[in-house]
Every structure is written in structure tokens, then in C-alpha cells.
Design a protein that fits this description.
With 428 residues, the protein is α/β, with parallel strands linked by helices. It folds into two domains: 314 residues, TIM Barrel; 87 residues, Immunoglobulin-like. It is 26% helix and 17% strand. The chain has twelve helices and 14 strands. Strand 2, helix 5 and strand 3 form a beta-alpha-beta unit. Helix 7 packs parallel to helix 9 and helix 10 crosses helix 11. The longest helix is centred in the middle third of the chain and has 17 residues. The radius of gyration is 24 Å and the shape is elongated. The structure holds alpha-D-glucopyranose. Alpha-D-glucopyranose (GLC) binds next to loops. The site of alpha-D-glucopyranose (GLC) has 8 residues, from loops.
């Protein structure tokens, strides 16, 4: 099946490691989850008031791009259309798009231009699901799933026409915005009363991207077993590096939220701390994965204070520590991570990065490092970190304990004033 498709190069993606997801659309106005239509079983008419009042007057993508850059993000992925079917660009194939709202202007164009100007790579999220399109059949997650009249009209809806509509829209996205680095199709739910590749006509959709943007990476949610340049764990950190059926490591990207929902949710209070977010980024890279961290801008077009604070905090950390993230991946086999720590490794420079998640008392025991360390320093200030064989001069050694690991770093009593301190280890 894949023989007619080529594999694009994912080199930039595994190097860059950190991207910004942007979920934006009409759902920013009710501000209580991007699935609001499905959750509350709202009809198109119930939701129409948001379309009629959509006017993000403070939208300034130059500011968004600046914040992404300062946070250390190297690519971004924006919702061109989410499940509610609302399109953020002036598509020719439906009236349900931004140019027919009071705002009137193309949000995608402005955002793409601003992020590109900051050197940030461009990704398009496109929802396979569409709760607005008249030919899209009612299924188990559709807002009208419990409406018998709507259900009864299913035989008169034609998913082939919907699949054609998607191809035309993806054609527009592939041809009107220059080079697109990545496509994020979302999502398939095959099986009873669900939808999968036959409904989307996924192969033909994918073929359009391959033809028009052959270098673009595409996610794995089209329900085609052999299509997918990266795997997309959502709202969890995988236990280890992800592998394919043959046991080979795969390219993957965890997508994560600040607070649980993807769209702006005013009254959600489960916001992750900067400390936790940095540890999630590090944890992913230590397992060979990327982090796509989501912002849900407000209905006026701003990143709210809770989001900007966290982006700023991550940026402060990244400014001093990005050497342990960019170009890094999992440590080679044989380097067992010390307790409460994560290793990342830069194969080009042969440096190992020890991220200290919980501050220990003086010694960090490193099984497997033995005599392989040439030099070590804290990454945030370049100050030397001493290391030695455990037991040489310690009470443990003098008391004759021999079950200690052969190498330990000696760190100060006080944790350096950065959220996650890192020791940069120059290997021999
Ligand atoms: C899910 C949700 C959606 C969100 C996406 C991001 O599939 O349907 O709301 O856009 O995850 O990964």
C-alpha cells in the first residue's frame, strides 16, 4: 500500500524536539472545551451565535511567534479546522469560515507569516471530523448522536462528498501558504458507529500532501497502518521510547496541554507548573520523543496570563539549557539513569546531560559511567562539577562498603536556582 508513497526526512523534527500547538476557533468564546458541541450536544444553530460574534480584535501573531521563540519552540502546529468544522482560512468550499465572521481576515495567513518570520517551522492541524458539514454522517461522537431525526437522515448524507470536500480543502492548504513542514490530521475512531480510513478516503487525502508537499511530515491518525511519519501519544508520557512491531525505535511526539483542554477554557484550574512542564519536555527527549505543547488563545486573540507565564518560565530554562534538548535523544544503552534523574544525549558532540529532577544530598551515583567521564559542568553557569569513584575518600569506602557504584558527581547542598539543574558530561 505504501509503495507509491515516499518517506520524508524527519531529521529536523527529531533535532528540534519542542513545538507549539495552537487550538483556536469559535470554541474560545464559550470557553469551556473545544468539544463543547459534542459534550453538550449542541446543534449548529445553538452554536451559531459564536460564529456571528467571532472578532478577535487583539490578535497579534507577531506576539505569539515571539513568545513561541522565547520559549524555545522550533515549530508550530495550528488548527486550520477543528471538529466543529469552522475554518480559520478563507476556503472556497464552505461559508463556514473566518472571512464570514465579523473579523473577516485570514487567520492562517497572518499566523504562518509571523511564525515563519521568526524562523519557526509551519504545521497544519486539520480535523478529519466535521460536525458542521451536511454530508458528514452522525456517529457515536457526533453532537447529534442522540437525535433520532438527525440519525434518520444518515442515509441521505454522503461521506464520499465529504471526503472530496476534505481533499479540496487540503489542496488549498497545500497550495496557498508556501512550504508546509508538517500535517497533523485528527483523528480516526474506526469500528462500530465510528469512522476510519474508508470514510476519509485517507490514501487519496495523503496522496495530495505527498504530491504537493512531499517533504512534509504527516502524523499517524489517518488510520492507515503504513502511513505516519511520527506517532502521537496524547496527554500522557510514554513509559519508555516507543517502538514499532519489529522493535525499532519510532519517531514520536507527545502532545500535551497546560490545563487539560485544548481550546481556551476559562474556568479550568488544573494548570501544570513550569517545573512539571520542563520535566515533561526532558522526560520525552530522554526517551527519544518530542513535546508539542498546546496554547488555547482567548476569543480576543491573546495568550492568557497563565499561558504566557508558563511559556516565559520554560523559555528561561531553555535559554540556559537548550543544549540538552536540541539535537539530543535517549542515552545509548548501558547508561542507567541515576535515581530521580533523566539522561539526554547528543551523539554529535558525545555529551551526556544529567537532568536532576529531585535535588539529592551531595552524591549522585551513576551506574555505568565508570571511567568514561572526561569533564563535567553545570549547564546553567558552566561551573565545574567534581566527580570521583565512590569510596576513595568517603566513610563508605573506608568502612569497606564495596557495593557502591563506581562514579558519583558531587553537587552542592543548595540546588542551583533553575527549575531543573543539568550536569553536562563530556564523555571520553
Ligand atoms: C484529540 C481531540 C482534540 C485535540 C487533539 C489534539 O484527538 O479530539 O480536541 O485537538 O486530540 O491532539
Amino acid at each position: 500500500m505504501t509503495s507509491r508513497f515516499t518517506k520524508p526526512d524527519s531529521g529536523w523534527f527529531v533535532n528540534d524536539r519542542f513545538g507549539m500547538f495552537i487550538h483556536w476557533g469559535l470554541y474560545a468564546m464559550p470557553a469551556r472545551h473545544e468539544w463543547i458541541r459534542s459534550r453538550e450536544e449542541l446543534s449548529i444553530a445553538d452554536y451559531q451565535k459564536h460564529f456571528e460574534h467571532f472578532n478577535p480584535d487583539l490578535f497579534n501573531p507577531i506576539e505569539w511567534a515571539r513568545m513561541a521563540k522565547l520559549a524555545g519552540m522550533k515549530y508550530f502546529v495550528i488548527t486550520t479546522k477543528h471538529h466543529d468544522g469552522f475554518c480559520l482560512w478563507p476556503t472556497e468550499h464552505t461559508d463556514y469560515c473566518v472571512t464570514n465572521t465579523p473579523y473577516q481576515r485570514d487567520l492562517i495567513r497572518q499566523t504562518v507569516d509571523a511564525f515563519r518570520a521568526e524562523g519557526i517551522k509551519v504545521g497544519f492541524y486539520y480535523s478529519l471530523i466535521d460536525w458542521h458539514h451536511p454530508e458528514f454522517t452522525i456517529d457515536r461522537i457526533h453532537p447529534m448522536r442522540n437525535n433520532p431525526d438527525e440519525r434518520a437522515r444518515n442515509p441521505f448524507r454522503d461521506m464520499r462528498k465529504y471526503a472530496d470536500y476534505m481533499r479540496k480543502q487540503v489542496f488549498e492548504l497545500c497550495t496557498q501558504y508556501g512550504k508546509i513542514d508538517l500535517f497533523w490530521f485528527d483523528f480516526s475512531y474506526p469500528g462500530e458507529d465510528g469512522k476510519g480510513h474508508q470514510d476519509w478516503e485517507s490514501e487519496d487525502l495523503y496522496a495530495i500532501v505527498q504530491e504537493l508537499q512531499p517533504h512534509a511530515l504527516v502524523d499517524n491518525r489517518l488510520d492507515l497502518p503504513d502511513v505516519g511519519d511520527f506517532v502521537t501519544p496524547e496527554q500522557f508520557q510514554p513509559a519508555g521510547g516507543l517502538r514499532d512491531a519489529q522493535g525499532k525505535p519510532v519517531v514520536w511526539e507527545a502532545c500535551q496541554t497546560f490545563s487539560g483542554s485544548w481550546g481556551y477554557y476559562r474556568d479550568e484550574h488544573d494548570w501544570k507548573s513550569v517545573d512539571l512542564l520542563v520535566r515533561m519536555l526532558v522526560d520525552g527527549v530522554s526517551k527519544g520523543g518530542n513535546l508539542l505543547l498546546n496554547v488555547g488563545p482567548t476569543a480576543r486573540g491573546l495568550f492568557d496570563q497563565r499561558a504566557t507565564d508558563r511559556l516565559k518560565g520554560m523559555g528561561d530554562w531553555m535559554a540556559l539549557h537548550n543544549r540538552s534538548i536540541y539535537g539530543c535523544g535517549a542515552a545509548p544503552d548501558g547508561f542507567t539513569q541515576p535515581t530521580d534523574c533523566r539522561y539526554t544525549y547528543d551523539a554529535h558532540t558525545n555529551r551526556l546531560y544529567l537532568h536532576i529532577f529531585a535535588w539529592p544530598f551531595r552524591d549522585i551515583y551513576c551506574p555505568g559511567l565508570g571511567d568514561r567521564v572526561a569533564y563535567a559542568q553545570f549547564l546553567h553557569d558552566g561551573s565545574e562539577v567534581h566527580f570521583g569513584a565512590v569510596g576513595e575518600a568517603s566513610w563508605a569506602g573506608m568502612a569497606g562498603y564495596t557495593d557502591q557504584t563506581p562514579l558519583a558527581f558531587q553537587v552542592p547542598i543548595l540546588k542551583p536556582d533553575v527549575v531543573v539543574p543539568v550536569i553536562e558530561i563530556f564523555l571520553k
